[in-house]
């Protein structure tokens, strides 16, 4: 399959392989058990495979699609050896994901002609919003973009301090107010300051209190409305950050946030050190909103542009 032959950046790929290590070893451990003593893919193997996929956080709906595809293939090919199962899974999952148009990103990109390009970062507490902002700030800066950070998580003093640390580390300006101030006011100041500084990108942090959907929706709507007093059409992107290590919980959060507000892109963090990396497959299949970034570590370079083929390739590469 041609897309697997594509040469991805070696460092990036190695980091991804490394990050997915736990997910892979858990998945292949279960797969090996499921086919133990069997040479042929039959109904029993398919049942077990279904369980392996579901328990690997791929999600029920996506698992059913994958099993259907493999079943169809078995009925056509008549004989399918269990030794081929890994390769077949890889092909069918890549095929399934290719039906979604999104998820083929190659590099960090913002559209031409929008300046500043305002990215509002949302998600519940602890998923990795601030860290993702710091990493993105560095990567945009590396591309020669002028970045301004906005400390819109005014709920906790530590949240503002943490963003300040990233601003210092990456050496980009930050707009902040004191703890407890109105996040919409911080958003307003940030966009205004970015325009004054002729900045290219605004990364706006927000608080992640998902106490209830109505409150969340009201808060995010207000932030948007107030920043639109500075300039039309902002935010240009609403990036929802999900903690991949929470597996199906990440799925639930994606559902709730996309229902509460308009989300335009997703980042799935903490894929390193978890066995639940399969969740990315389900999320890319199930949501119309594209996964744009994945977090594979705490370091500044450990935020990757998500490419579904590269991901599937890493996931099914046993080496
Ligand atoms: N291992 C790992 N840790 C991460 C990743 N992204 C974020 N974290 C950690 O997750 C914790 C919470 O992140 P933070 O950015 O404060 O989350 P926020 O509350 O959503 O802003 C921090 O300790 C981060 O270092 C990742 O991709 N991998
Ligand atoms: Mg934070």
From TrEMBL:
Give the UniProt entry's GO cellular component terms: cytoplasm; plasma membrane
EC supergroup of this enzyme: hydrolase
Q: Which UniProt keywords apply?
A: Cell membrane, Cytoplasm, GTP-binding, Hydrolase, Membrane, Nucleotide-binding, Receptor
The UniProt record lists the SRP54-type proteins GTP-binding domain at 290-303
Where in or outside the cell? Answer: Cell membrane; Cytoplasm
Q: Its Enzyme Commission number?
A: 3.6.5.4
Gene Ontology MF terms in the entry: GTP binding; GTPase activity; signal recognition particle binding
Q: Which Pfam families match?
A: SRP54 (PF00448), SRP54_N (PF02881)
- List of residues binding GTP: 123-130, 205-209, 269-272
Q: What GO biological process term is on the record, naming one?
A: SRP-dependent cotranslational protein targeting to membrane
InterPro entries per UniProt = AAA+_ATPase (IPR003593), P-loop_NTPase (IPR027417), Signal_recog_particl_SRP54_hlx (IPR013822), SR_rcpt_FtsY (IPR004390), SRP/SRP_N (IPR036225), SRP54_GTPase_dom (IPR000897), SRP54_N_sf (IPR042101)
The chemistry this enzyme catalyses reads: GTP + H2O = GDP + phosphate + H(+)
Task: Classify the source by domain of life.
Answer: Bacteria
| Membrane disposition | Peripheral membrane protein
- UniProt subunit comment: Part of the signal recognition particle protein translocation system, which is composed of SRP and FtsY.
What job does the chain carry out?
Answer: Involved in targeting and insertion of nascent membrane proteins into the cytoplasmic membrane. Acts as a receptor for the complex formed by the signal recognition particle (SRP) and the ribosome-nascent chain (RNC).
Spell out the NCBIfam families in the cross-references.
Answer: ftsY (TIGR00064)
The entry assigns this protein to a family as follows:
Belongs to the GTP-binding SRP family. FtsY subfamily.
Name of the molecule in the record: Signal recognition particle receptor FtsY
Taxonomic classification, please? Bacteria, Pseudomonadati, Bacteroidota, Flavobacteriia, Flavobacteriales
| Protein's gene | ftsY
């Amino acid at each position: 399959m041609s897309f697997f032959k594509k040469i991805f950046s070696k460092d990036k790929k190695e980091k991804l392989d490394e990050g997915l290590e736990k997910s892979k070893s858990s998945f292949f451990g279960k797969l090996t058990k499921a086919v133990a003593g069997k040479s042929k893919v039959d109904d029993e193997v398919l049942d077990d495979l279904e369980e392996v996929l579901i328990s690997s956080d791929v999600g029920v709906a996506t698992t059913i699609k994958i099993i259907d595809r493999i079943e169809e293939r078995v009925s056509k090919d008549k004989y399918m050896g269990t030794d081929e199962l890994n390769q077949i899974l890889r092909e069918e999952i890549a095929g399934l994901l290719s039906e979604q148009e999104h998820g083929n990103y190659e590099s960090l990109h913002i559209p031409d002609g929008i300046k500043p390009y305002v990215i509002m970062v949302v998600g519940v507490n602890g998923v990795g919003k601030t860290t993702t902002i710091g990493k993105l700030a560095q990567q945009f800066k590396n591309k020669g973009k002028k970045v301004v950070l906005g400390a819109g998580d005014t709920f906790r003093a530590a949240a503002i301090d943490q963003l300040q640390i990233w601003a210092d580390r990456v050496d980009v300006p930050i707009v902040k107010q004191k703890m407890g101030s109105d996040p919409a006011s911080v958003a307003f100041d940030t966009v205004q300051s970015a325009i004054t500084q002729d900045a290219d990108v605004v990364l706006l942090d927000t608080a992640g209190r998902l106490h209830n959907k109505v409150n969340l929706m009201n808060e995010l709507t207000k932030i948007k409305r107030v920043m639109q007093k500075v300039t039309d059409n902002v935010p240009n992107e609403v990036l929802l950050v999900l903690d991949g290590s929470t597996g199906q919980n990440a799925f639930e959060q994606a559902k709730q946030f996309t229902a509460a507000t308009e989300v335009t892109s997703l980042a799935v963090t903490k894929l390193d050190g978890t066995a639940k990396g399969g969740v990315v497959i389900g999320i890319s299949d199930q949501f119309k909103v594209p996964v744009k970034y994945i977090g594979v570590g705490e370091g500044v370079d450990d935020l990757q542009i998500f490419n579904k083929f590269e991901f599937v390739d890493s996931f099914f590469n046993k080496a």
